[in-house]
Design goal:
The complex is a heterotrimer of chains A (318), B (171) and C (435). With 318 residues, chain A is an alpha/beta fold. Chain A is built from eleven helices and nine strands. A five-stranded parallel beta sheet of chain B has the order 2-1-3-4-5. A two-stranded antiparallel ribbon of chain B has the order 6-7. In chain B, β6 and β7 form a beta hairpin. In chain B, α1 crosses α2. At the A-C interface, α4 of A face α5 of C.
Chain lengths: 318, 171, 435
């Protein structure tokens, strides 16, 4: 039976951030606006505010990740929270402890917030359904399903450079099939009213019925990039070669890699984005990655402010 | 008997007269969002201060985050001058419990170590819950507990005060 | 014991009977309909006014979890659940631990089931040893021990030569082979139907072609070998079309669908509800509708519960890691009734899918109400309505996707061989236990 959306409270307030899907447009804008204020905090000498003082944030990473975990850690510390990092993959899971048991044990240690990354889609939802009422869950990436904070910082970046979402053409390129980032980006872009969202990739890397998410499908990158304002590249994992999804990285780069030549088909003021880490020469070449249209490094900076906004909004709701 | 609401523009004029002899030109003025910024903009121009106007939003320093959560509308704070050793005047529209000022002072100290901090308020309605006192006041005003004093700004920039009933239980 | 079942609406799909009348049971057999046989003295009278009396339900797939999976469920609990659901005959798949690939295991299972004296258990034997898909089992000996058919259940049978030979061997003796059409490569790693829900939720997909590709291979081999094949748990609209065509061509095939696929679709997964993690996966609404209509027009011969009790821990996991399967033998009756009402099929036709037609697939006697025949009966209240809650389930598995549903139709009495093996509201479970 269909249950209620677990990330919203009975009054529609955001108590967890699990997925962009189902988030009201006003909530997304509130997060972006709040993040703007946190950017100015990160620009002063004392980069902390006392909002989460006395609160404990547990980074529960079942899938290893240094960069995402570090930005969440920095964000939590700038909110004056205490941060505990757990690479759970190594210890208790191998001892056979279930996901929910791990969470229950940590909750007993007075955790106020869990930031969770897991290899299985739906892991954050499962945890959110089982934590005590005052504990908040932030999804830092679950399987192929969602990576909401990445999409939010991508939207913040777009707004920073393009001001308005209406009237934009945005293209997402690469392995959409396996990408939780792409799914979250698509939901965010369509919710914010971006009129044209395109996905570009070979058929083997695009999920079934993806157009139902509100996107236009292109297999030809030049056609797909025509007149585009925002180019969002996705990471290609090299394991895809072994699954008969692609013949080689070289062929992928030839057809779907971003170089200056292909970028020229987009608008001259188009921005180039990438969630990182980049595979130079596979999905993007260095001249573009380091070039004038790339906003890849600012994305990282904005990521801290956006995560501060998400954590402070969610922790303040019952 | 309805509370007599003073005319905001007159209070502003009175405030300017108090401050003119006491506030040097290189004072750093900081308005507290939102009403305090409106008042500070007028003061800043009238007093001819040389340092650009600063604005502060105390949302991240409030003491009621635990019970009320984060305010849905947060504006960035912007202090475009060096705070350390400077003579600062904080400006707010309505001074009440003193908690907003406490938060503003805490936030200010995260920008640097000011030389001196003074407070200017358009209206002081009493009801202090913390030991906070203004150095410059437009006027005091007696208002019932269940009422709010609200500053508004018209399109042409004219300021006006009103007294409104508080919605729901007190904070 | 002589039992007089008084004033019930007697529905027998096999004969087309649908009449309010009396039924008389004696010596484990149906003695008469309408008027009592001479000298009949009832030891027990069951007031059946307002109730429906039909042949005991026949469920073609009920996992009893013994031997080997006792932490999930036991013979005792699952047979009690079956009896409470009005099920008098059930077929259990061979994927126990160890699998039912040796006559000794089959005999032990039959013996245990018989001593519990609740429901008839028809074991389906393993088609290959250990269900490994390599060497065929001793089918003749297994049949002698009591197996009614041979199956691979969900275990992959990759080597088409083995499949071909297993079918040929079975045909030699006329044994039916029950096969689930599922290509192991195309379904590998998948947990949800390859459609809009799997795309949105980021769940590894199982395309419908995983079923239809395997199905076409099976149908061709049936044509080649003449084997009697029963296709288990269809899930795709295209499969129904293929079966319809194959039957029109005269191939000796039958097929079934589970209650889950008749009522639910991928949309029911919602926010990763692991109770909807099933094999085969719940597919699109279009597929569901094709299955409902295929069942109505007889292309699909039977509806079963595909009862698969799973312990709570195995469902309290992220969707992709959770154990697949739903418990449901005690919901077969109300869910079959719900389907019948929704496709507007008269009861006397609809109940065939859980009585006479299912019996035909099993290849055993019974599944009908006729004087002289065995008294396997289900007496149910068609108007009794209730909410499906974990506490009301007798199965040890609480993993049903129908939790919270309001269902109508509840078995009040279940008789096997003329003995009341279940009576609703009895203080103790009647006539059970080793005696």
């Amino acid at each position: 039976m269909l249950a209620a959306n677990p990330q919203l409270s009975a009054h529609g307030e955001l108590r967890h951030l699990l997925t962009i899907e189902g988030l009201p447009r006003e909530t997304i804008l509130q997060i972006l606006d709040t993040a703007t204020s946190f950017v100015s905090v990160t620009e002063r000498d004392v980069k902390k505010v006392p909002l989460l003082r006395g609160k404990s944030v547990f980074n529960l990473f079942f899938e290893p990740s240094t960069r995402t975990r570090t930005t969440f850690e920095i964000a939590a510390k700038r909110l004056s929270a205490d941060v505990i990092n757990l690479n759970v993959g190594a210890s208790s899971q191998s001892k056979g402890e279930t996901l929910l048991d791990t969470v229950a044990n940590l909750s007993a240690m007075h955790a106020d917030m869990f930031v969770v990354r897991h290899a299985q889609s739906g892991a954050a939802h499962l945890i959110a359904r089982h934590v005590a009422p005052n504990i908040h869950v932030i999804n830092a990436g679950d399987g192929r399903h969602a990576h909401p904070t990445q999409a939010l910082l991508d939207m913040f970046t777009i707004r920073h450079y393009k001001s308005e979402f209406s009237g934009l053409r945005v293209a997402i390129i690469g392995d959409v099939l396996h990408s939780r980032v792409a799914r979250s980006q698509i939901h965010a872009l369509t919710t914010l009213g971006v009129p044209e969202v395109r996905v570009i990739g070979p058929r083997t890397l695009l999920p079934s019925e993806v157009s139902r998410l509100g996107v236009h499908v292109f297999h030809d990158m030049r056609q797909g990039l025509k007149d585009v304002d925002v180019v969002m590249m996705l990471r290609l994992q090299t394991e895809r070669m072994s699954g008969a999804l692609l013949p080689s990285a070289q062929e992928f780069f030839k057809n779907y890699g971003l170089n200056a030549d292909k970028l020229a088909v987009a608008r001259p003021d188009a921005i180039v984005m990438h969630p990182g880490p980049m595979n130079r020469g596979v999905e993007i070449d260095s001249t573009v990655a380091d070039g004038g249209q790339s906003v890849i490094l600012p994305q990282v900076t904005f990521g801290i402010a956006v995560r501060m906004a998400v954590m402070s909004i969610v922790a303040g709701n019952p | 008997m309805k509370t007599r609401v003073p005319d905001a523009e007159s209070l502003l004029a009175a405030l300017i007269e108090q401050m003119r002899p006491a506030v040097p030109a290189d004072t750093g003025m900081i308005g507290i969002h939102t009403g305090g910024v409106w008042v500070a903009q007028r003061l800043h121009r009238a007093l001819g201060l040389t340092a650009p106007l600063g604005t502060i939003d105390v949302a991240f320093y409030r003491d009621d985050y635990g019970s009320r959560g984060l305010s849905p509308k947060v504006r960035p704070s912007d202090i475009p001058f060096d705070v350390t050793d400077r003579d600062i005047v904080l400006v707010d529209d309505v001074l009440y419990t003193g908690r907003t000022i406490r938060a503003a002072i805490n936030e200010l100290f995260d920008y640097g170590r000011p030389g001196r901090v003074r407070l200017a308020a358009l209206v002081d309605r009493g009801g202090r819950q913390l030991p906070i006192a203004p150095q410059f006041v437009g006027s005091t005003l007696e208002v019932a507990d269940g009422e709010l004093v609200v500053l508004s700004r018209a399109e042409d920039g004219r300021l006006s005060l009103s007294v409104q009933a508080r919605v729901g239980a007190g904070a | 014991m002589n039992i007089h079942i008084k004033g019930g609406r007697v529905v027998d799909p096999a004969t087309g009977l649908d009449r309010t009348t009396d039924l008389f049971v004696a010596d484990g057999r149906i003695a008469a309909l309408g008027r009592p046989p001479a000298g009949f003295g009832a030891a027990r009278t069951i007031e059946a006014t307002g109730l429906t009396v039909c042949p005991g339900l026949v469920d073609l797939s009920v996992r009893l979890r013994e031997p080997g999976f006792e932490y999930k469920a036991t013979l005792d609990s699952e047979m009690a659940a079956a009896a409470a659901g009005g099920v008098t005959s059930l077929a259990c798949p061979p994927d126990t631990d160890p699998p039912l690939d040796e006559p000794g295991l089959v005999e032990m299972l039959k013996h245990r089931a018989k001593s519990l004296n609740r429901t008839r258990v028809y074991p389906v034997g393993a088609l290959t040893q250990g269900l490994k898909g390599e060497r065929i089992t001793e089918m003749a000996q297994l049949a002698e021990a009591g197996c009614v058919a041979f199956s691979q259940t969900d275990a992959p049978l990759v080597d088409t030569r083995v499949l071909h030979r297993a079918l040929q061997y079975a045909t030699t003796f006329g044994y039916p082979v029950w096969l689930r059409p599922q290509d192991p490569h195309l379904s590998h790693g998948g947990v949800a139907h390859d459609g809009q829900v799997a795309t949105r939720l980021g769940l590894p997909p199982v395309p419908a072609v995983a079923e239809t590709l395997a199905l076409s291979a099976i149908l061709l081999l049936v044509r080649e070998t003449g084997a009697r094949v029963h296709l288990c748990r269809l899930s795709a609209a295209d499969s129904v079309d293929m079966v319809r065509q194959a039957k029109a061509m005269g191939l000796p095939i039958t097929c079934d669908v589970s209650v889950n696929h008749v009522h639910l679709s991928e949309m029911d997964i919602g926010f990763f509800d692991a109770n909807c993690h099933l094999v085969p996966p719940l597919r699109s609404l279009r597929d569901r509708d094709a299955l409902r209509h295929g069942l109505a027009d007889g292309t699909i011969d039977a509806i079963c519960s595909d009862h698969t009790p799973v312990d709570d821990d195995a469902k309290q996991l992220p969707f992709g890691e959770s154990a697949a399967g739903a418990t449901g033998v005690e919901l077969l009756l109300p869910l079959a009734l719900k389907w019948a009402e929704e496709v507007r099929l008269p009861l006397v036709k609809a109940l065939a899918r859980v009585t006479s037609d299912a019996t035909r697939v099993l290849g055993v006697e019974g599944g009908r109400i006729e004087p002289g025949g065995r008294a396997d009966l289900c007496i149910f209240d068609p108007e009794a309505s209730y909410r499906v809650e974990p506490a009301m389930l007798r199965s040890q598995g609480r993993n049903t996707p129908f939790l919270g549903y309001e269902l109508k139709g509840r078995a009040l009495y279940t008789l096997v061989d003329g003995q009341i093996v279940f009576e609703a509201g009895a203080t103790s479970e009647v006539v059970s236990g080793e005696q």
